[in-house]
Amino acid sequence: MTPVSISHQAARRCAALALTVLGLAACGGGDPEPDAVRSSLALRRVVAPAQHALYLGVTVPGYPHKVDVYRTAGATRALVLLHGHGGRNWQLAYDLGFNRKLAPQLARNVNWDWLAANGIVAVVPQGQIPPGSTAPVWSNYITDSGQDDVAFLGALAAQVRTQYGVGQVALAGHSNGGAMTARVWCEATPAFDAYFSIAGPMPSSTFPQPAPTCIPLAPAPYAMIVGDLDDKLAQFAPGLVEPTAEQVEAGLTDEVLLSEWGRHRDRSASVCGAEPMLEDRVADAASTRWADCASQQQYVIVHDAQHPIASIEQHAGQRMLPMIVDFIGSAIPAGASQQR
Hints:
Structural class: alpha/beta
């Protein structure tokens, strides 16, 4: 299996063992257990400095959200990470490999080696539970948390820059958190230096009715990665156009994948005037992808992957966190910031 490439650096980081495990899993049919995938795709252990610090329940003045901050010694970039519908911030930390236990975070369970290897300060806020519900969500037009999450995330980004000594802050999210990431790219673009959505379609203010793609407030890198067997995204399909035979052949096998390709084309046009075409794709055994605007705009469809992060990792042949970090590193030059 050929790994998906957000950029070449992340591919080189993957252990050779990962490809062996993935090949066996494919023959057996079905996804392996998430822990097996994470073990097979783990990076080489590195020595972690003693100056790391974990801050639990950090707040931003004026907002009720609790935020866990993993301050990795020497890191100059911060990554704000948003969980999915009904999720908890410690669950996302587990999915991404820096909480060793599927349980609320404790200092002894932080995988500092993994964070140090990826060179980031991880910032993981907790979404809010709206009245009458039990599920934490984000206010992304698909769901409403009862909070102004666009304003909250903008304030959080500013606080992270001033308090933790980082020059760049990026935003990434899975599922409902990915849709929130998309909304912030539209409405508060300068707050973050880069954006990365995992299985989170870009919504519009008219949801569930389709609408044109937003125009961002400033050019900013954006990547979206999704599995072509993701059955959780069918709720976004009503009202969307079905793909043609040519589009299906290009990997756009359902209405949602086609809609997101259209969003990618619109984002590319907004950022650099590019006009991606079907034939511009790069396809291999692991994925079909489009990369435009000097790779600052990317759309990646991972073959045979479903909605969970572990499934995307398995079929991409890479861990998700290095893919995000590598996209940020390639899209934003070292020392530069998009903040205005």
